[in-house]
């Protein structure tokens, strides 16, 4: 949930850490901090509540060749200067991403030994323990400490007078970067884009020791191990706004390319997937948030194309319900980051119960990728905005192809060819849809209700989540037919209903729902590609017309429309859609 960065090299560590923190900020932005060791081994710590920009000027006056930094999404203790990382104890200073689940117990024991705590964080416990375990060898002190920690951690520790960073990883991601006489350690790849030529990914239980001479990696038995080095392909240019005011808008406009790339990469992955799906008789899709909503669309693809019953569940619910899974089941775990704790752990559980796990992810080096039997690549490219846009549409494209593959269709079949036309239609939608005046209406509404049937309902859920997430305007997504079973009571002149209508056969039924809204004094918007829908209501309804396409492919364009509406509503209200309050991009804690 937080971002961590470490640097050892010949450049100014304060500058490298500052840049890394800006790049990692999307993982959390409640507070930020850094610890820099100077040439004499003295550590300076600065930390500030708020975004990295608040911290940045304080790094101007510090220099050194070794540094660690942290950008925080608060879990234990409110956002404040004192709860910000790094945390220090004696000569030791640490940054931590993850949750130490037994911290209360450890803290009581430490307090009984006379330790005083200054923050409300779980992480300060780690600093105290490393300090107590330190007998001259920083890595050994860290190794001793992690033996008693329960939970998840990506931990970096430095020690006054020791020219090194010690690292430990368990269920929170850590990558190491190898440059020219400089070494990095970070939570994820965007942090190291363009910074180093190769990277390696730590495994759970690994420890690493980074010095000016290089990096040594040890397993949990303190045996030195080699972890594959791979080329660092993350491009720094993907982090540029390229003239857009916000990443959300930039990434929304990257949707056509994301879908196109996903289709291309799927071709290469298809044979392995086809093989893995042989003999499968049950389909389960799992994910959280937007990825879960993509799974709901995917479920309909498996049902429609392969006529197999498919289930889609929220990963956090799935893992705690003692799920009934056995051999013959395939779990499609959908996750942009591949690091969402609930999704990764749900997939791990399903695998131990005998299911095949297919990672539908945008992150080739993620925890989900590593535990999966097969990867169905989502090639959306780096997504910085906390609100998912292009990754959602690319996930849908990927699941569409997974379902066709499962149904035994070749990638030259009519449906697959129709998908290749969708990037152009996404482009057309982006160019033609004007949601500005509707965004004004939504911005002033007391509630915005998204309605739809079948796949439109799945996109309605996503439209609602997106709007809430970036504009803070309350609302819900509902099946259009459910309105009259309760939600209608909420409709008045201050509410707006957004109906998604992309199925000709269901268009009349959706029109009824819109009429019900209007007759209760509500305002209505219809997003559709069905010709003539709501024609009789057109003076009372705002209609957004999208290009014609098959109903199963329509989520790729209706998503673009609702995402644009959410973006513009946030803009009208002056919200920052890239960093909505209280949120972070990857939720690596439960
Ligand atoms: O990285 P993941 O796809 O696993 O993330 C899942 C959710 O946390 C994520 O989709 C979240 O709902 C987004 N902020 C939605 O825009």
Describe this structure in words.
With 590 residues, the protein is of the alpha/beta class. The protein is built from 18 helices and 25 strands. An eight-stranded antiparallel β-sheet has the order 3-2-4-1-10-9-11-15. The site of 5-amino-5-deoxy-1-O-phosphono-D-mannitol (M6R) has 15 residues, from α8.
Which key terms come to mind for this protein?
seven-stranded antiparallel β-sheet; 18 helices; 25 strands; binds 5-amino-5-deoxy-1-O-phosphono-D-mannitol
Fold blueprint:
Elements lengths: L2 E6 L4 H12 L6 E7 L5 E7 L2 H4 L10 E7 L14 E3 L2 E9 L2 H10 L10 H11 L4 H9 L4 E9 L2 E9 L4 E4 L4 E4 L11 E4 L5 E5 L2 E5 L5 E2 L4 E2 L15 H7 L1 H22 L5 E6 L1 H18 L3 E5 H4 L10 E7 L5 H12 L3 E6 L5 H5 L2 E4 L12 H17 L7 H7 L1 H11 L3 H8 L3 E6 L2 H17 L3 E5 L15 E7 L5 H13 L3 E6 L12 E5 L9 H18 L18
Helix pairs in contact: 3-4, 4-5, 7-12, 7-14, 8-12, 8-16, 12-18, 14-18, 15-18, 16-18
The site of 5-amino-5-deoxy-1-O-phosphono-D-mannitol has 15 residues, from helix 8.
Radius of gyration, in angstroms, nearest whole number: 25 Å
First-residue to last-residue Cα separation: 10 Å
Main sheet: strand order: 3-2-4-1-10-9-11-15
Silhouette = globular
Number of helices: 18
Number of E-state strands: 25
Q: Which small compounds were modeled alongside the protein?
A: 5-amino-5-deoxy-1-O-phosphono-D-mannitol
Give the fraction of residues assigned to helices.
Answer: 25-40%
Rounded mean pLDDT is 94
Give the structural class.
Answer: alpha/beta
Give a short account of the largest sheet.
8 strands, antiparallel
Estimated share of beta-strand residues? 15-25%
pLDDT < 50 runs, ≥5 residues? none
């Amino acid at each position: 949930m937080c971002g961590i960065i470490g640097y050892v090299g010949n450049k100014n560590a304060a500058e490298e850490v500052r840049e890394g923190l800006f790049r990692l900020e999307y993982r959390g932005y409640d507070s930020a901090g850094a610890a820099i060791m100077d040439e004499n081994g003295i550590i300076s710590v600065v930390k500030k509540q708020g975004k990295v920009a608040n911290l940045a000027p304080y790094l101007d006056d510090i220099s050194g060749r070794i540094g660690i930094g942290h950008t925080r999404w608060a879990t234990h203790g409110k956002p404040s200067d004192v709860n910000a990382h790094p945390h220090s104890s004696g000569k030791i200073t640490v940054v931590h991403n993850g949750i130490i689940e037994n911290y209360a117990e450890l803290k009581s024991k430490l307090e009984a030994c006379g330790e005083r705590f200054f923050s409300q964080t779980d992480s300060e416990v780690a600093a105290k323990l490393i300090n107590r375990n330190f007998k001259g060898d920083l890595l050994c002190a860290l190794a001793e400490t992690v033996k008693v920690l329960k939970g998840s951690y990506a931990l970096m520790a430095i020690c006054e007078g020791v020219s090194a960073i010690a690292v430990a990883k368990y269920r929170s991601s850590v990558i190491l970067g190898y440059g020219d006489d400089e070494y990095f350690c970070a939570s994820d790849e965007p942090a190291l884009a363009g910074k180093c030529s190769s990277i390696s990914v730590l495994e759970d239980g690994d420890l690493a020791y980074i010095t000016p001479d290089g990096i040594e990696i040890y397993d949990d038995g303190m045996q030195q191990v080699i972890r594959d080095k791979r080329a660092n392909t993350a491009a720094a240019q993907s982090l540029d706004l390229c003239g857009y005011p916000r990443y959300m808008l930039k990434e929304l406009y990257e949707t056509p390319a994301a879908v196109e790339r996903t289709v291309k990469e799927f071709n290469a992955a298809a044979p392995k997937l086809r093989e893995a799906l042989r003999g499968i008789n049950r389909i389960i899709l799992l994910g959280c948030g937007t990825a879960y909503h993509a799974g709901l669309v995917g479920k309909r693809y498996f049902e429609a194309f392969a006529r197999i019953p498919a289930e889609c569940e929220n990963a956090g619910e799935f893992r705690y319900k003692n799920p009934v899974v056995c051999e013959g089941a395939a779990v499609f775990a959908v996750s942009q980051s591949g690091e969402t704790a609930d999704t990764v752990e749900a997939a791990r559980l399903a695998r131990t119960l005998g299911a095949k796990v297919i990672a539908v992810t945008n992150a080739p080096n993620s925890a989900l990728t590593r535990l999966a039997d097969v990867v169905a690549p989502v090639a959306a490219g780096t997504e910085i905005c906390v609100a998912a846009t292009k990754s959602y549409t690319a996930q849908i494209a990927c699941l569409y192809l997974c379902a066709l593959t499962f149904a035994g269709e070749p990638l030259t079949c009519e449906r697959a060819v129709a998908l290749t036309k969708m990037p152009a239609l996404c482009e057309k939608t982006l160019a033609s849809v004007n949601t500005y005046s509707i965004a004004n209406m939504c911005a002033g509404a007391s509630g915005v209700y998204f309605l739809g049937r079948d796949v439109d309902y799945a996109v309605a859920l996503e439209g609602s989540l997106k709007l809430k997430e970036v504009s803070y305007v309350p609302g819900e997504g509902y099946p259009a037919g459910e309105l009259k079973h309760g939600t209608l009571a909420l409709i008045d002149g201050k509410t707006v209903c957004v109906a998604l209508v992309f199925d000709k056969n269901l268009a009349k039924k959706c029109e009824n729902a819109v009429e019900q809204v209007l007759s209760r004094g509500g305002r209505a918007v219809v997003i559709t590609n069905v010709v003539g829908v709501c024609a009789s209501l057109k003076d009372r309804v705002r209609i957004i017309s999208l290009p014609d396409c098959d109903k199963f492919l329509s989520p790729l364009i209706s998503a673009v429309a609702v995402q644009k509406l959410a973006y513009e509503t946030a803009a009208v209200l002056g919200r920052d859609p890239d960093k909505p309050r209280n949120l972070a991009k990857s939720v690596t804690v439960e």
